[in-house]
Design brief:
The complex is a heterodimer of chains A (about 375) and B (about 300).
Chain A: H1 2-17, H2 19-39, E1 47-53, H3 58-69, E2 73-78, H4 82-90, E3 96-100, H5 104-111, E4 117-120, H6 125-150, H7 171-201, H8 203-208, H9 214-242, H10 252-276, H11 280-298, H12 310-316, H13 320-333, H14 338-362
Chain B: E1 2-3, E2 6-7, E3 11-20, E4 24-34, E5 39-43, H1 50-57, E6 65-70, E7 73-74, H2 79-85, E8 86-89, H3 101-111, H4 120-130, H5 143-155, E9 161-165, H6 173-187, E10 192-197, E11 208-213, E12 216-221, H7 223-228, E13 234-238, H8 242-251, E14 255-261, E15 264-269, H9 276-285, E16 292-295, H10 300-307
Parallel strand pairs in B: 5-10, 5-11, 8-9, 9-10
Antiparallel strand pairs in B: 1-2, 3-4, 3-6, 6-7, 11-12, 13-15, 13-16, 14-15
Helix pairs in contact in B: 3-5, 4-5
The chains are: A mainly alpha (about 375), B alpha/beta (about 300).
């Protein structure tokens, strides 16, 4: 036991004394969360638009003030002619033009058929679609108000609810994704590199020629990274709750238990890589290429798995991050309990046990 | 076999074979034994198979043929017990560079289930020199200091047999000398030491040596006996043009062996009753000047060259 403690202390010393490792270990999660949170978001904020109001009546002004009040749009200027509008769109920083025809209010009140033209810059189609749907929402909102006050219940309006994420924020999607990515990277790479480092510097030779059994070496190597990774989970959750306003809806202990399981999966993969490689560079390369890429591609957090061709969908099933991503989403955002995620948990546990068995089988008690 | 709880021989190697890949034979039917409490030197150039033998004896490699025991324990079957009893210092500096001197020592003491205090007497003389630097990280020590620390770490659990793989390679001459003094000291603690070195001059520090080349043992004996068994009288020659001298000696029909040795050439002759002045005259005739020719004592290196 004493041996175990000093080994773990030694391992902590390695991490805490190396600034680069520290930076990767604790800087990476924070940076990734912040990058995904503020820079790489699919939300569109403060899109600059122009308005051509040929009506200048009560209805058009009310809609314009609603648009101006929305945080998604920033009215750049009001234009007077088609020519002016085209010029504005050509400049490139104007995303959208909203045109009210003359007699807008009259048409609305008397003919019950008013029209608004919305012209979007579709060079970025996703962006344009998003903006159009925002404008639509604003107009429908106005329409609802209008109908209420005028008691003309002609229209059937679809009531759409975006469940679990009513504001369509990006955060609920990527926080679980970043958690999977960071844990995968930290655990797999750090464990693999730290074991291979001992091989490379020759200290493994001395450790093997000691009463400390190889199995204990491996466990003692894994424990510090388990603890450090849990610290990372805490950091990510704190950032997500306090900086990104994304609360944990489900049971936090369940979330930690599932995270621990996933961390162990990653540690075991890291150990497997370290058993199979002899230099830190190779270990790092395999960890990065072999782990990060599949995690990004197949976890479902960047690219929807349902849209992939069948062979790729099948491959995604062996990527532990996919299951963890589903679990975290279910607990954190949907607030579901173990009853909903027991299947994913079992699959993850299965992958872990499988990897553990093959890494222990291939672990060498001697050199080469 | 057992005597007073210790095996008769600290290390026994019988017909040991180690092959890498399909063809490369690193150790070729090597046999020797090491008596308890002696310093046994494995002496040979780089690539002779010394490290492979060490790794088999420290249970890090499996032999491909033959057998070996350490302290009476089989290196294959009883590897776990052997790992409790031996100390090992690999050729490359293998301590934690980011831990301090003190931390390294504590770590290895604890891993071997002992404490620094319990066996402090073993390392005291060596550690005294490291004491001023105990807070310094091991990676920042000089080469000689690193070796001393590595020796301390290998000794801290009072091993029965200590394996030192090229401990003096890359260390300055003064530190090398000190290092050997330390090994002599350890002998008095009844620790068997198996040491390898490519430096022939260090052979005399050992009680017994094995000369090894290309995986094969050339001779196993005490350094004194090896030198004594040199069959011919050896001469040292010097002249103004060494290059020409060596060429002449090689083609001279009376010469048995000749080779450069420091600033001299070492020569042995086919006829034990060779006339020295005849040789000097011959060299003069061939145009050499400042010729100095005298008998010289045989060194281990001469024996090694002879045995090749």
């Amino acid at each position: 036991m004493k041996q175990f403690v000093i080994f773990i202390r030694k391992e902590f010393a390695h991490v805490l004394r190396d600034r680069k490792t520290l930076l990767i270990l604790f800087g990476m999660p924070v940076v990734q969360i912040l990058i995904f949170g503020f820079a790489l978001t699919s939300e569109v904020k403060d899109a600059r638009i122009v308005i051509m109001d040929q009506a200048r009546d009560a209805a058009s002004r009310q809609i314009i003030s609603k648009i101006e009040a929305s945080r998604y749009f920033e009215v750049d200027k009001t234009v007077r002619s088609n020519q002016e509008m085209k010029e504005a769109l050509k400049q490139g920083d104007i995303r959208l033009a909203v045109i009210f025809p003359a007699n807008f209010n009259y048409d609305l009140v008397h003919q019950n058929d008013a029209r608004i033209q919305v012209i979007a810059d579709a060079t970025d189609p996703n962006n344009a679609t998003t903006l159009i749907s925002y404008i639509n929402a604003i107009i429908q909102d106005y329409e609802a108000d209008f109908n209420k006050t005028n008691n003309v219940p002609y229209r059937i309006l679809p009531e759409i609810r975006f469940l679990y994420n009513p504001e369509l924020k990006g955060a609920p999607n990527y926080v679980p994704g970043v958690m999977a990515l960071v844990l995968m990277l930290v655990c797999v790479m750090m464990t693999a590199v730290s074991i291979v480092k001992e091989k490379e510097t020759g200290t493994m030779e001395i450790l093997l020629v000691s009463p400390f059994s190889p199995l204990k070496i491996i466990v003692a190597k894994a424990v510090p990274y388990l603890i450090l990774s849990l610290v990372n989970v805490v950091t990510i959750l704190l950032l997500s709750v306090f900086v990104l306003d994304l609360p944990v809806n489900g049971n936090i202990f369940l979330l930690f238990a599932e995270s621990t399981l996933f961390i162990i999966t990653c540690l075991v993969i890291g150990i497997f890589i370290s058993v199979k490689t002899n230099t830190m560079q190779v270990a790092m390369l395999i960890s990065l290429m072999g782990m990060m890429l599949p995690t990004i591609l197949f976890s479902g957090f960047m690219f929807p798995i349902e849209n992939m061709p069948l062979p790729l969908q099948l491959i995604s099933n062996v990527i532990p991050a996919k299951w963890y991503y589903i679990i975290v989403k279910d607990i954190m955002i949907k607030g579901l309990g173990l009853g909903a995620i027991w299947k994913e948990t079992l699959i993850l546990a299965g992958i872990t046990i499988f990897m553990l068995v093959i890494s222990l089988k291939s672990f060498k008690i001697r050199l080469s | 076999m057992e005597q007073n709880g210790r095996a008769e021989n600290a290390v026994v190697v019988r017909n040991l074979v180690k092959v890498y890949g399909k063809e490369k034979t690193a150790v070729d039917h090597v046999s020797f034994s090491v008596k308890p409490g002696e310093i046994f030197g494995l002496i040979g150039p780089d690539g002779a198979g010394k490290t492979s033998i060490f790794r088999v004896l420290t249970t890090l490699l499996l032999p491909d043929g033959g057998s070996a025991t350490v302290d009476g324990l089989d290196v294959v079957k009883d590897y776990k017990q052997i790992r409790n009893r031996v100390g090992y210092m690999p050729g490359k500096f293998s301590l934690y560079q980011d831990l301090s001197v003190e931390e390294n020592l504590n770590f290895f003491a604890t891993v071997f289930d002992t404490t620094v205090e319990a066996n402090y007497h073993l390392i005291k003389e060596i550690y005294d020199q490291l004491e001023p630097f105990k807070k310094r990280r091991a990676g920042k020590l000089s080469g000689g200091m690193k070796q001393k620390l590595a020796l301390c770490c290998a000794l801290i659990h009072k091993p029965v047999v200590l394996f030192l793989d090229e401990p003096t390679t890359g260390v300055d001459p003064v530190s090398r000398k000190e290092f050997w003094e330390m090994l002599k000291q350890l002998k008095t603690q009844n620790i068997t030491i198996v040491v390898s070195t490519p430096y022939m001059d260090e052979a005399n520090m050992c009680d017994e040596i094995a000369l090894i080349q290309s995986g094969r043992l050339l001779s196993v004996d005490t350094p004194g006996n090896i030198v004594k068994s040199y069959p011919e009288q050896l001469y040292a020659v010097k002249a103004d043009n060494m290059h020409k001298l060596l060429k002449l000696l090689r083609s001279y029909d009376k010469v048995m062996n000749s080779y450069a040795f420091g600033e001299f050439a070492h020569v042995s002759f086919k006829d034990p009753q060779v006339n020295i002045s005849e040789v000097t005259d011959y060299l003069k005739q061939e145009g050499l000047a400042d010729i100095e020719l005298r008998t010289t004592a045989v060194t281990i290196e001469d024996s090694f060259i002879k045995l090749l």
